[in-house]
């Protein structure tokens, strides 16, 4: 029984540690996409973003990033929503950043 | 006369043995809970290392507030990154003897305010792939991850960790950055 309890706690710890690392990576990936859009390195269009060259996660996760752009008023103002997603120990983790970009 | 010898129930010895086993299991379980909580806390601190968080925040602020670069490099370089602010002040980030050094100058000829912002840095690279975007790559030494460190003997080695950062320059005012 003690072995089962021990295995449970250790697994819970490992899982929590992986989720923390993954979340940190997802935040950094989303920031990288957002700064690329803001800086003009990525076009102001919705779609999937390949970050293989710009971003390497610290943990062993595979990050998928998408950007959604919506035009707003006044003309030149865009609503940008960046989503970074990864599977961490069979759990889908998502980090989303929403902001506005002025591109007159 | 009949003598009834009833053996049902538990003896005091059996009860003491069960209690002793339960105590051992509770002790082991409690130790595991405490150990797991300590490791989880250590992991959290390792992921969001306050010093590295502070350094990345400082770099983020410096680059985002800059109006431009003194010298543009489309390919990775180890040279100092010199940022020019809207007011004409300069901020230089450079690797010197394993330390990441930030120097701020009010202008040419003025003595710089130099500070070490991160120690144990083994590599420093930067580039601006397109105008207005700066990529930073910093490799530094850290303690191993807690779950591996916990099982090691005294005298474990340091590990390398790499930060890849991308920031957009916004300090020019107006323009298309915001």
Topology:
The complex is a heterodimer of chains A (104) and B (178).
Chain A: H1 2-39, E1 47-49, E2 64-72, E3 77-88, E4 91-102
Antiparallel strand pairs in A: 1-2, 2-3, 3-4
Chain B: H1 12-47, H2 50-65, E1 66-69, E2 81-85, E3 90-96, E4 99-105, E5 113-119, E6 121-127, E7 133-142, H3 146-149, E8 159-168
Antiparallel strand pairs in B: 1-2, 2-3, 3-4, 4-5, 6-7, 7-8
What can you tell me about this protein's structure?
The complex is a heterodimer of chains A (104) and B (178). Chain A is of the alpha+beta class. Chain A is built from one helix and four strands. Chain A has one domain. The N and C termini of chain A lie far apart (66 Å). Helix content of chain B is 31%, strand content 32%. Chain B is built from three helices and eight strands, in the order ααβββββββαβ. Chain B has helices at residues 12-47, 50-65, 146-149, and strands spanning 66-69, 81-85, 90-96, 99-105, 113-119, 121-127, 133-142, 159-168.
- C-alpha geometry of chain A: elongated
Give helix % range of chain B. 25-40%
The number of strands of chain A is: 4
Proportion of residues in β-strands of chain A? 25-35%
Mean pLDDT of chain B: 81
**Class from secondary-structure proportions of chain A:** alpha+beta
If interface size is counted as residues with C-beta under 8 Å from the partner's C-beta, which chains form the largest one?
A-B, 32 and 35 residues
Please give the largest β-sheet of chain A: 4 strands, antiparallel
User: Biggest sheet of chain B: strands, sense, closure?
Assistant: 5 strands, antiparallel
Enumerate how many helices of chain B there are, as a single number.
Answer: 3
Radius of gyration of chain A: 18 Å
Query: How many DSSP E strands of chain B?
Result: 8
Number of domains of chain B: 2
Oligomer: heterodimer
Stretches of chain B where pLDDT is under 50 for at least 5 consecutive residues are none
Order of helices and strands of chain B: HHEEEEEEEHE
What general outline of chain B do the C-alpha atoms trace? rod-shaped
- Spatially, the strands of the biggest sheet of chain B line up as 1-2-3-4-5
Radius of gyration of chain B: 30 Å
